[in-house]
Specification:
Layout: H1 3-15, H2 18-25, H3 29-43, E1 48-51, E2 54-57, H4 59-82, E3 89-96, H5 100-112, E4 117-124, H6 127-135, E5 141-146, H7 151-160, E6 163-172, E7 174-178, E8 199-202, E9 225-228, H8 231-240, E10 245-247, E11 259-263, E12 269-277, H9 284-298, E13 303-305
Parallel strand pairs: 3-4, 3-5, 8-9
Antiparallel strand pairs: 1-2, 5-12, 6-12, 6-13, 7-10, 7-11
Length: 307
């Protein structure tokens, strides 16, 4: 087994096809195919299933990919640490539900990064993808929430993926509406008050289960629903139409103008936190990001920091 073979494995899994990976790596398709076949033969497993649409990781391949990412990450760190005259190339990858504080902390870390070379990735994505990104070491950390409805299912998913959950803060459930919405002047809103209005929710892709929803009470039946995948779309919907979404009550900077957060009259609370792989040994940059998450959250009076 060589580092080159592991790099090929990672590239193919990210590109979804041997041909696309070959183009991105500037090597021949036959060289990649041969390298993967030799790796499969050496390990005695099948890494990819092949079809006309490309390649898909097998269960053994997914497990190997997780180890490959760790090995390559450590090899790159060694190379950068001991290569004379080279600045350290910093890496940080975050997968998160659509929260402004995770973005703000990410931006703060990027702006303060002293290294002249870095590769930062922020993925705002579906809950199932967050768990899978951290499971396969594609991301260093994932940010999501738990409540009494989804906790059992998500904690089982964390356990299956060998992830640990670390609370960041607890928040009372709020309703977000535009400032011209009929409910905007109310000091508190009941669930039944929301029934006449469209519900806005982030689309969860293939794992479109109520348990994976980013919004509490997603399991309640509503006649009108609008799903989307972009946080900017949510802002436009809230300011332009009389719909609503349910979240923590923490408004992003672009949402402060024209959007109102109203407490929901329920006992439910949201516990927002981050997940890391149990085999992940956080480096200085990841620890810096986690510290920045706590700092950004502490500046918001509407949340209660987790003990």
């Amino acid at each position: 087994m060589t580092l080159q073979q592991l790099r090929y494995l990672i590239a193919i899994s990210e590109q979804g096809s041997i041909n696309a990976a070959a183009q991105s790596l500037y090597v021949s398709q036959s060289n990649l195919s041969t390298a993967i076949k030799e790796l499969e033969r050496e390990l005695g497993i099948t890494i990819f299933t092949r079809s006309n649409r490309g390649v898909t990781l097998t269960n053994d391949g997914t497990e190997l990919l997780g180890y490959a990412r760790q090995v390559i990450e450590q090899a790159d760190m060694l190379e950068e640490r001991y290569a004379r005259g080279r600045a350290e190339h910093m890496h940080l990858a975050v997968s998160t539900q659509h929260y402004y504080f995770s973005l703000q902390a990410f931006i703060n870390v990027a702006e303060d990064c002293a290294s002249s070379k870095y590769d930062f990735i922020l993925r705002e994505c579906a809950t199932g993808q967050i768990i899978d990104d951290v499971r396969t070491f594609r991301s260093d950390v994932g940010i999501l929430y738990l409540d009494s409805f989804n906790e059992r299912v998500l904690k089982k998913a964390f356990s299956d993926a060998d992830l640990a959950f670390f609370p960041l803060f607890d928040a009372r459930v709020h309703v977000f509406v535009g400032e011209h919405h009929p409910l905007a002047k109310q000091s508190i809103v009941k669930l039944e008050d929301l029934a006449p209005y469209p519900r806005y929710a982030f689309e969860q892709g293939q794992t479109n289960s109520f348990y994976y929803s980013e919004e509490p009470f997603g399991y309640l039946r509503r006649d009108r629903n609008i799903r989307f995948s972009d946080r900017g779309t949510l802002t436009n919907l809230l300011t332009s139409f009389n719909g609503y979404t349910i979240s923590t009550g923490v408004l992003s900077s672009e949402m402060h103008s024209g959007i109102v957060a109203i407490p929901l009259d329920v006992d439910e609370r949201m516990q927002v936190g981050y997940v890391m792989h149990n085999e992940r040994r956080p480096g200085a940059l990841l620890l810096r990001y986690i510290d920045e998450l706590h700092r950004v959250i502490a500046e918001n009076p509407s949340v209660q920091a987790a003990s």
